[in-house]
Amino acid sequence: MKKGMANSDDDDDEPQSLCLTNYHLDDDNDMPLSLIMLPIKWSESDEDDSIDDCKQKKVFIHGYLHPNRLKKMFPVKAWSFNLSSLKPILSLQTKDGNWIKLKSPRKSFEATIRTILITIHFLHYAKKYPKLSSSRSIWDNLSKVKELSSYKLKPSLSDLSNHMHLISEAAKRDDVLAKSKLLLTILEENPSNQKISDEKVRDMMDEANEESEPEDDVCALCDNGGNLVCCDGACKRSFHATVEHGRESMCGSLGLTKKEVDKKTFYCKNCEHKQHQCFACGKLGYSGLAKGAEVIQCDSATCYHFYHPHCVAKLLPQVVKHDVEGLERNIADGNHFTCPVHYCCVCKEGENKKDPELQFAVCRRCPKSYHRKCLPREISFDDEDDEDIIPRAWEGLLSNNRILIYCLNHEIDDELGTPIRDHIKFPNFKVIAREINTAKEMKHPTIDRVISNKNNVDLDNSYDKSTAKGSKVTGKVSPGKLEARSLKMLLLVQIFQENQKTKRNIKKVLI
């Protein structure tokens, strides 16, 4: 009898959050049941009407408490899943309202729960790598997941066929999933016996296509809004394009002319030359290779930060469990990763855009994020009454209800109200012509010229306090890597323009 498996005497001392391993579900006739026999609770704000309708359905979870291995049984009424963590988390709600996290199923129960586990891991993968569009590798990757590796049958598209309604509902409630290219690809490839209509798939695809890629709502140079131009390249940053546009925010701007601003497409110098900054160390690196690039972009659909593999590999273990060396090697080899910005640096959990307390406050200067509820008290909001408090947080500037912050690692400049604006670097290509001896031992002057760019600012500019007042500040950075012959040809053109007598030396330079 079920009552013979009652909880032990220390029930009253049990914590509100439990974790069960070696679990299985059944009814009052000992018949095994899958999770889908229970109503799903999408969020804590969901009404319990559908759950209350299931009062007559007696469903029980059996297992062993982790880690003390006490055998337990609980009557349950609903289930949920979390896709925002490093691994998907399955939970069951008991009749008294407590939640139990599920670790690993009982061996004999694996066949019963197999397809729903595959579906949840598929959704987690689709959310984690929303830019992937090919479904070729998904099943190989899922078969290597520890929780699914014991199955004799490799995960496949057919495992999702009975859970299309769940997939559809999850996409409706998750903005990242709704725009996942992989999810849309799978829905198009869906077996004929699925229960989601072609019209519904088209509607989801249309909605995803109608939503433009997220653009930065504030200027990358000064962190203020206004009249901005968005880069059409990979970085998706926005800028005050002209001096006039940046004047109100004391922003140095890009210094573009109206004619340049009116062009159909705009690429910042980082995207134009495929030289992007690492968001961790601030140094530039080449990003133009699919494999072996110096800096690699985060794979999240809502993130456009680049990182050196070794920099992000050092940061990620602070929020998720990872082997630093192995992670660096995998990222350098082209494997996808989600950067630390997508984990709260306090509780290590992901963002829940539907819950205000679990929405992110994101630092504009480094890869650090907090849930609203996890924000340190020292990070004060702009609307606080005390005039002596320096604000570090602003609402209403970023999309998705995120909070713009400067974390405590960055000193606020009293005049600007932001940290010193020296954080943006553009690539700087300098060409130095070495001395070229002629047949008569002539020496031509060394040329130190900066290739001009349409922004009229020195590439690799850093925007400091004087920049905020409207002036441009030049800086230095290592020369870009150009092919040797291209450099020689450029030298020849420059030398030819300065001294016609160098014609006799052209042949020597090309050799």
* Share in helix: 10-25%
> Which sequence of strands runs across the widest sheet?
1-2-3-4-5
Strand content: 5-15%
The Rg value, from CA coordinates, equals 29 Å
C-alpha end-to-end distance: 93 Å
Give the helix/strand class. Answer: alpha+beta
Individual helix count: 15
Low-confidence runs of at least 5 consecutive residues: 1-16, 192-198, 205-213, 430-497, 499-511
- Average residue-wise pLDDT: 76
The biggest beta sheet is recorded as: 5 strands, mixed, barrel
Query: Shape, please?
Result: globular
How many strand segments?
17
Subcellular location: Nucleus
GO cellular component, one term: nucleus
Protein name: Putative histone-lysine N-methyltransferase chromatin regulator PHD family
Keywords: Metal-binding, Methyltransferase, Nucleus, Transferase, Zinc, Zinc-finger
Describe this structure in words.
By secondary structure, the protein is an alpha+beta fold. Helices cover 23% and strands 14% of the residues. The protein has 15 helices and 17 strands. The protein has helices spanning 49-52, 110-128, 138-143, 164-173, 175-178, 181-188, 198-210, 243-246, 258-261, 269-273, 309-315, 324-332, 465-468, 484-498, 506-510, and strands spanning 17-27, 59-65, 71-82, 89-94, 99-102, 229-230, 238-239, 275-277, 284-286, 296-297, 306-307, 360-363, 369-371, 393-394, 403-405, 430-433, 447-450. It has a 5-stranded mixed β-barrel. Strand 14 (393-394) and strand 15 (403-405) form a beta hairpin. Helix 11 (309-315) runs antiparallel to helix 12 (324-332).
Question: What's a quick, concise take on this entry?
Answer:
One of its GO terms (cellular component) is nucleus. By secondary structure, the chain is of the alpha+beta class.
